[in-house]
Structure formats: structure tokens, C-alpha cells
Amino acid sequence: MPIGGDFYEWNENNAKGIAERAGAYALYDAAKDLIYIGSSSNLRERFTGYWTTGFEGDKCKQATRCYKREFTESYESGEKELLEEYRRTYGRLPRCNEVVP
Asked: How many domains, the chain?
């Protein structure tokens, strides 16, 4: 949940080898618990940036060990729908999506 398909190991080859396409993605920790839902107009650019910086300044996402992704041109609305589905199911957002005051 919420993105179907395979888990991909979070490593440099997978992060930098993803297609240059728009899409939504989900990051998971070592226990395969969903920790973040996001989207980008260019997943390769986003993932390369994450990999290069090591999620600098975002300790929550540093727990990432694997991910799922789906390519879609309607990536922003796809992200919103995934977040709404997660909130309906669990009564909260994934821990790295929650806004901390």
C-alpha cells in the first residue's frame, strides 16, 4: 500500500537509473513500513538528488531502504490521492509527510 508493484532497493544504481519520467513514489524503511509519499515531474532527477545529498536535512527520509514508484503524467494529483488514501486507512499521514510545527 499504496503503490503497487515491486519494491526496489534504495541504492545508487536504482536511484540514478530510474527513467526520466513524471511519477509518484513511496519510500519505505528496513521493515518495509511506508514512511513517505511524494511525486516529481522527473523521478530520475528527484532520486539522483536524494542519493547525492543522502537526504541532507531530512533525517526522517534517511531511514529509506527501498521504494516503489509509478509513472504518471498526473503525478501531483496522484500524490494527493495516495496521501488521502493513506490517511483514510491509517488516520494519519506517513511519518515523513506529517508536518511538524
From this structure: 1
Ranges of beta strands (E only) in 1-101 are: 8-9, 23-28, 34-40, 66-71
Task: Tell whether 16 is covered by a domain.
Answer: yes
**Tens of pLDDT, residues 11-61:** 999 988 999 999 999 999 999 999 999 999 999 999 999 999 999 889 999
> How far from each other are the two terminal CA atoms of the chain, in whole angstroms?
27
- Evaluate if pTM is beyond 0.85: yes
Q: How far is CA 2 from CA 23, 49, 51, 55, in A?
A: 14, 23, 23, 22
What are the residues facing 24 on neighbouring strands? 39, 70
